Amino acid sequence: MSQSDRGLRRLAAGTLLVAFQGTTAPDWVLRELENGLGGVTLFGFNVAEPDRLRSLTASLRAAAEPVISLDEEGGDVTRLAYHVGSPYPGNAALGAVDDAELTHRVYRAIGSELAACGINLDMAPDADVNTEADNPVIGTRSFGDDPALVARHTVAAVQGLQSVNVAACVKHFPGHGATRVDSHLAIPVVDVTLDVLRARELAPFRAAIGAGTKSIMTAHVSVPALTGSTPATLSAAALTELLRGELRYDGAVITDAMDMHAITKSVGLAGGAVLSLAAGSDLLCLGPLPTHDDVRHIIDEIVAAVRDGRLPAARLEEAAARLAALRAWFGSAATPSAEQNGVGLHAARRAVRLTGVPEPLVEPLVIEVDTPPTIAVGDVPWGVGPWLPQAEIIRVKPADADVPVLLAKATDRSLVVVVKDAHRNEPSRELVSALVAARPDATVIEMGLPIWRPDSVAYIATYGAARANAQAAIELLTA
Hints:
Layout: H1 3-13, E1 16-18, H2 27-34, E2 39-42, H3 50-63, E3 67-70, H4 91-97, H5 100-116, E4 121-122, H6 147-162, E5 167-173, H7 194-210, E6 215-218, H8 224-227, H9 236-246, E7 252-254, H10 261-264, H11 269-279, E8 284-285, H12 292-307, H13 313-330, H14 343-351, E9 353-355, E10 365-369, E11 392-396, H15 403-409, E12 415-419, H16 426-438, E13 443-446, E14 458-461, H17 467-478
Parallel strand pairs: 1-2, 1-8, 2-3, 3-4, 4-5, 5-6, 6-7, 10-11, 10-12, 12-13, 13-14
Antiparallel strand pairs: 9-14
């Protein structure tokens, strides 16, 4: 391979964020890092206790100066606490409190934990304005449905993370909040005028750019008025004309996971990589599915696209310059120690809301209504069991629930029903309604968005299912 070929391959590799299985880095990842790979994205299956995570990130840094990223939003979407649930409430809870200084403190604490583990880029905060109640992928990940509120908390989150030298990655540009389709599965459509898009969806991104966010993540959503039927991740109108031109953003543009069906089922992984780079992205987050063979194929396809004129070499050089600037920023401060200051529980306590007066607990029976996790959240534990050890906990799928049997078990006992996003799950609503119709003295705890609630029962809204949210709810119930 000639020197120019090696240089081009290195530029192509530098645009990729790869993933791998396990808690140690495979040899192929370390070799590719030495050969210019942009970095890695970690998932819950990569994360063990902090010492092992530090060893993993140290091995990656020994090979190169990579971007080491993950999705740590707090709340339902957590990677550091994937196996136990987050000690921080998510954005919906912080938006309910609406104290920007508190949001800054929460995200600074999250950032300090990431930095102490060797993570230098957090794919957060979520800046989507969640105007669609039936949104299957955003929900409690959003600060709310008001653009001004979302904007001020997005700024606080960006500044909190970056105050401890962890780069923020504000997502999902140009907005995923008005969708009813999960882009992991298909291409969602945001069918609004450009005026609405500018006033609503873009307000938090505009504020984040003003606050100096180091990176922005693209969305695999189409906006017919802007991108036609093309996902924004592949659209020059979205990434170059709007983001770079109109909004004057010059930081790193990172794609959402390229292995999502919105990309793989439309243009394919390698084809999508070339189209996204041509449209204006700098780093391609490949997601957890692509293998080393896939990575090599993507690099080869990017090189081929430069050779045959589909992708200007200048685009790769521009991406490399932005990544170099990001790496220089990473190295500009000492690594802080993790802040164990209890701000997560404090925030969850401020967010929780109680309507009605719960009965004192007597031999409580807790029925947790099972809710399938979204792909973004994954299989993170949730529920109130850790905070109510004296209770009998039953987790039931609505389709399998035998209401008379459950009610019989609750005879002469306190009944607590825990549900998540009941407004999006009709079987869950039917089960909760049947239980509280027979037991109006029950307490219902909603651990998603509190949009639907049964009448005439004590009702606790947590605005999220993180560990901190559950603890705050049970404290109210047992006070």
